Amino acid sequence: MKTTELPRWASAFVLPVLNLLSALLVAALVIHLLGESPTESLRILIDSAVINPEGLSYTLFYASTFIFTGLSVSIAMKAGLFNIGSEGQLYVGGLGLTVVMLTLDHSLPAWLLIPAAMLGSAVFGAAWAWLPGYLQAKRGSHVVVTTIMFNFIAASLMNFIIVKYLIPEGQQNPASRVFSDAGAMPRLNEWFPVLGDTPLNVSFLLAIAALAIYGVMVWRSSWGYKLRATGLNQNAAHYAGVSISGMIIVAMLISGALAGMGAVNSIMGSTHYLSLNFPAGAGFVGIAIALMGRQHPVGIFLSSVLFGALIQGGFDLSLEKPNIPQETFVFIQGLIILFCGAMENLYAPAVLKLLNIRKG
């Protein structure tokens, strides 16, 4: 009997790998057209981003933020929502963290200050996601449209707040003052010196914990069952007693909180101050990570590390190979989004046909 649907292992593993390889093949062609060797470029990238301990540390540092934004998009997708607003929620989450820091960093010890700042980032991120969730649940406004709008509103609002209120007197850099040392996340090189002088910090461990909690809550709890039921069939979920509007709002609140938590790694783990445009597109990368990782904890982790490696390895590669500009790796990220998002089922018919041939 012929199979009409791909098995779970094929859709969750085989298709993403084929899509990724397709994106990399196109990227290799572009690098070749730029006059460089794709194989040598790949060797330099892997050595810089994975094999070298210090480079791996930077890769995991970038991945820490991407894990939170990937989880943000994923939890909304499980409810049938496409939250494109993680970028704005991450930005506003940074404001919540900064408000706590600027208010309490000289009066609280680190063991109280750091959790308070993390809570501030989560609360502000959740608050920024609440209104799009409410409008979707209660007014029927599509969450894609509202979250896109809220990204632009967040950018303008943050520009106004930072320039008007947060720049210290006498300074021109569009950023808040530097936080006290009590507000710095402990760095992992304190325990593992081989990592070198890099910003990889405890936020990476928090991101791993968030992945585990996400996996348990989504697949091993009654709430997760209701969440997935809402995303798969709202009518059936409503018939089973699930409050659809309530589930949409809660999912968006959690999504926004996770995006806001991404600011902890960027600000408390690295810069120690709030600056303009600090998200640097991490919220949009989260969309690609959620799609490529199939909203699964392991997939989200691997996708985050991949994008972190592209940033770290791409920076070093552009230094060694001047013909390959840094913008090339933005293009590669776009290719991955294209193949793993819009064209995610490109190879599905061929894989299904191959499986049926093997069965026959």
UniProtKB/TrEMBL annotation:
Membrane-protein topology: Multi-pass membrane protein
InterPro entries (UniProt xref): ABC_transp_permease (IPR001851)
Domain of life: Bacteria
Protein name: ABC transporter permease
The keyword Transmembrane belongs to this UniProt entry's keyword annotation: yes
Stretches that traverse the bilayer: 12-35, 55-76, 88-104, 110-131, 143-167, 200-219, 239-261, 273-291, 298-315, 335-355
Keyword set includes Phosphoprotein: no
Keyword terms of this UniProt record: Cell membrane, Membrane, Transmembrane, Transmembrane helix
Compartments reported by the entry: Cell membrane
CDD domains assigned: TM_PBP1_transp_TpRbsC_like
Chief place where the protein resides: membrane
Species of the source: Massilia frigida
